[in-house]
Amino acid sequence: MISDGVDDEEKWLSAGITGLQQNAFYMHRALDSNNLKDALKYSAQMLSELRTSKLSPHKYYQLYMRAFDELRKLEIFFKEETSRGCSIVELYELVQHAGNILPRLYLLCTVGSVYIRSKEAPAKDVLKDIVEMCRGIQHPVRGLFLRSYLSQVSKDKLPDIGSEYEGDADTVMDSVEFVLQNFTEMNKLWVRMQHQGPTREKEKREKERSELRDLVGKNLHVLSQIEGVDLDMYKEIVLPRVLEQVVNCKDELAQYYLMDCIIQVFPDEYHLQTLETLLSACPQLQSSVDVKTVLARLMERLSNYAASGAEVLPEFFQVEAFAKLNNAIGKVIEAQENMSIAGVVTLYSSLLTFTLQVHSDRLDYVDQILGACVNQLSGKEKLDDSKSTKQIVALLSAPLEKYKDIDTALKLSNYPRVMKYLTDGTNKEMATVIIQSILKNKSCISTAEKVDALFELIKGLIRDLDGNPHDELDEEDFKEEQSSVARLIQMLHSDDPEEMLKIICTVRKHILTGGPKRLPFTIPPLIFSSLKLVRRLESQNESVSVEEATATPEKIFQIVTQTIEALSSVPVPELALGLYLQCAEAANDCDLEPVAYELFTQAYILYEEEISDSKAQVTTIHLIVGTLQRMHIFGVENRDALTHKATGYSAKLLKKPDQCRAVYACSHLFWLDEHDSIKDGERVLLCLKRALRIANAAQQMASATRGSSGSVVLFIEILNKYLYFYEKGVPQITVDSVQGLIELIKSEMQGENTTSDPAADAFFASTLRYIQFRKEKGGAVAEKYEPIKA
Question: Which UniProt keywords apply (predicted)?
Answer without folding.
Answer: Cytoplasm, Endosome, Golgi apparatus, Membrane, Protein transport, Transport
